[in-house]
Amino acid sequence: MGLADKLETTIRDESLQETAASLAEIGLDTLLDDGILRDIPLIGTLIGIAKSAVNIRDRLFIAKLRQFLNELHDVPHETRDEMIRRINDSPEFEVNVGEKLLYITERCSDHVEAALIGRLFRSFLEERITYREFLRLSRCVDKLMPDDLHDFIASDWQRESAADATHLLQTGLVYLEDPEIRVEDQWDHKSSDRYIVEGSEMTVYVTELGMKMRSILCPQSSGNK
Question: What is the pTM of this model?
Fold first, then answer.
């Protein structure tokens, strides 16, 4: 069984709550030395990775997985199992959930970002968003600088000058509205300009996807999962 399969099995397992609690409460060094935790398929594999790592990258990956799993610990086992099975059985998605989550988690810049991904995946499990929306929002987290992401989810603006939101234009969180342009004949025909051109500045508006990201990740929603 590969690491992706073990991650998926761990998420679907009814003992995830105990597993996540154990991971959250102990340090990495303790984790590596704890013989009991080796019996959990995913944890045993991670311990092997960490002990054989020649650099810190794999240890950081373990820290990211811990944060991700901790966000899912109190979602009912039946819900986790059903939602993951539904995606794996769907012909719409070629990559199974466990493998996709490994790709996404590995791309996270740190454990804080991994926790955000966990909250997004939790929202999928609770059917607040679709799986495709989870994938799109995960990509947004990956694309945006942490400060830009924080500023967006913590704000409540619905429209903004495009000049102040250029970093959001390719994320799907906002859409660009073409400005209204009015052209009139110049009344002063001696003027070098034949026409008078007036228009509003380019403006972006928050999309439905952007609103969903805010509702899931904004600080005020962290206690209302």
Answer: 0.78
